[in-house]
Amino acid sequence: MSEPNGAIFVYGVSRATSLPPLEGIDAAPVRALEHDGLVALVSPLARAELRAADLRAHWRVLERAFEHATVLPVRFGTVAESEDEVRARVLDANRERLTERLRAMDGLVQLTVKGRYDEDALLREILRATPSLAALRERAARSGALGDKIALGERIERAIEARRAGDTATVRAHLQDRAVAVREEPVGHPDAFNVAFLVARDGIDAFGEAMPGVRAELGERIAVRYLGPTPPFSFAEAEEIRAQERAWA
Fold it and tell me: Are both 76 and 122 inside the same structural domain?
């Protein structure tokens, strides 16, 4: 079936046919397109260009749907001309992997722990722990030489990377035994870490009980944020769930 007013936007894939009313891009109603045991969450799209607000709508649909069922995200911007195309290029083309991933994700959620450095406290700690670096900083301040400033910057950056690795290891040491899987996301200064944990729904409370120990060991130099539960999108391989043989927007 073709969409009379434009294209069809695809949000995600599930096995659940009964979901609450959902609004997608441009407040369009999201419907469940069933096909041979799989369900694509779709809505009509009446324009050719996507906007920043559309990405927020994409994730909002997936998060709401996840409250009621296991859902895998489809790459943002996946658009089809008809329902038959969704069935053929999204569901049929990815059937085996979608079925396996949905089964693997049943009963699991994502909990995310993020950290951000207090930059002044971090620098004081690095200088206190490395007297030679403190001496180089004093020399660079006195001389104003470009070479000293470059050397100082490079050494501080290496020291921050070492602190980041150690702090990430601390987070994992406290929490990874309470998770099914762990994934470290890349970060840049002043962020210290961004670690996603795949956790069973009935293990959320036990995971949360370990967070005070994480904060206590890291101290006030890192502001720690604990997010979730959310859909396990860091583990869902969304970039691979897409329509085949088509250049999507």
Answer: no
Residue 159 pLDDT greater than 60, yes or no: yes
From the number of C-beta atoms within 10 Å of its C-beta (0-12, 13-18, 19+), residue 212 rates as exposed
Flag whether pLDDT at 240 surpasses 80.
no
Q: Please tell me whether residues 117 and 86 are part of one structural domain.
A: no
Residues 23, 119, single domain; the answer is no
**The residue to which tokens 């700690």 are assigned:** 125
The structural domain count of the chain equals 2
* Residue 98 counted as domain residue: yes
Full domain range(s) for residue 57: 7-106
* Same domain? 99 vs 114: no
Segment 80-107, tens digit of pLDDT: 999 999 999 999 999 999 999 999 999 9
- Mean pLDDT value of segment 170-195: 96
Asked whether residue 23 is assigned to any structural domain, the reply reads: yes
pLDDT at 24: 97
Please state the pTM of the whole predicted model: 0.78
Spatial contact of 200 and 110, defined as CB atoms under 8 Å apart = no
Measured CA distances, 208 to 34, 90, 103, 166, 172 (Å): 37, 37, 25, 21, 14
Assign residue 199 the CATH number of its domain: 3.30.70.260
DSSP bridge pairs for 31: 42
Q: Quick one: pLDDT band at residue 18, thresholds 50, 70, 90? A: confident
